[in-house]
């Protein structure tokens, strides 16, 4: 990681293309992971359209919509952070990454309240209340918890990655000449956003 | 090694472009909520997916700089998407004609 000293730099020039390509390859495996969940969703939607409608009705569009705005804005802030760093505005880049971290936390707090409300109503995997519901609704809520849970873990990981990059920027290890770590962290963050772009309409808006 | 114009280090995307993309994403989010309130039957799911796909194109092209990457990145992206589409397609062959 810390090969940014001049001597090391000459001996091991950083391969930006390779670094970014590696990150993209990792992201493709993530797409296939979430793709599996979307296949489950599609197959069960086809089997239980009514149950899915009833399930989707019980999710709060304001929570989902609010979190969509939070994630889209956090994607903007990290994209702007890269531009700022490329232009040599280190302080501004650090602030923008900080904004992204706060947005990530905000998303998770929203998610916490949202899940808490559902769990208080007795809706969580293998709860008594859920077992009494029709088959379609049971499947809907199980996939809902699986998908948003896996996505939530990605948000949490992304938040820590952003904190780590913020520290690297502060230490000068990520700087206007060497910023591929920020770019790759940004790519990961945008993927988290991309997955939410599909989760939101499929789970919250289905009527 | 890589003294040829820093070509692989990346294009600088201006703030204005990023903010316009963000505004478009917010507009599409409002649109997807609005469309979901109209009952179109099965068309609702296709409208939702269509809007989500166009949002993805915006995020991938501009926020993720894919528009400015070289052909190898685009080729890899195509392969990943075709693989995913094949998975989904074959699953439906099984589910629908069982």
Q: How do you describe this structure in short?
A:
The complex is a heterodimer of chains A (207) and B (98). With 207 residues, chain A is mainly alpha-helical.
Q: What attributes does this structure have?
A:
heterodimer; A: 207 residues; mainly alpha; Four Helix Bundle (Hemerythrin (Met), subunit A); B: mainly alpha; 2 domains; 70% helix
What does this structure look like?
The complex is a heterodimer of chains A (207) and B (98). Chain A has a single domain, classed as Cytochrome c oxidase, subunit III, four-helix bundle (Four Helix Bundle (Hemerythrin (Met), subunit A)), CATH 1.20.120. The N and C termini of chain A lie far apart (49 Å). By secondary structure, chain A is mainly α. Chain A contains eight helices and no strands. The radius of gyration of chain A is 20 Å and the shape is elongated. In chain A, helix 2 (16-47) runs parallel beside helix 8 and helix 4 (61-86) packs antiparallel against helix 8. The termini of chain B are far apart. Chain B has two domains: 13-64; 67-98. Chain B is mainly α. Chain B has three helices and no strands. In chain B, helix 1 packs antiparallel against helix 2 (43-63). The model of chain B is unreliable at 1-6 (pLDDT under 50). Chain B is flat, with a radius of gyration of 18 Å. The interface between A and B is large, with 48 and 50 residues.
Fold-level CATH name of chain A: Four Helix Bundle (Hemerythrin (Met), subunit A)
Number of strands of chain B: 0
Domains of chain B, number: 2
Principal-axes shape call of chain A: elongated
Biggest β-sheet description of chain A? none
> What does the radius of gyration of chain B come to?
18 Å
- Unreliable stretches of chain A (pLDDT < 50, length at least 5) are none
Oligomer, anyone? heterodimer
**Hey, roughly how much beta strand do the residues of chain B contain?**
under 5%
Largest chain interface and its two residue counts? A-B, 48 and 50 residues
What is the residue-averaged pLDDT of chain A?
92
Q: Between the first and last Cα atoms of chain B, what is the distance in angstroms?
A: 57 Å
Rg of chain A from C-alpha positions?
A: 20 Å
CATH architectural label of chain A: Up-down Bundle
The main sheet of chain B comes to: none
* Fourth CATH level, the homologous superfamily of chain A: Cytochrome c oxidase, subunit III, four-helix bundle
Instruction: Give the helix/strand class of chain B.
Output: mainly alpha
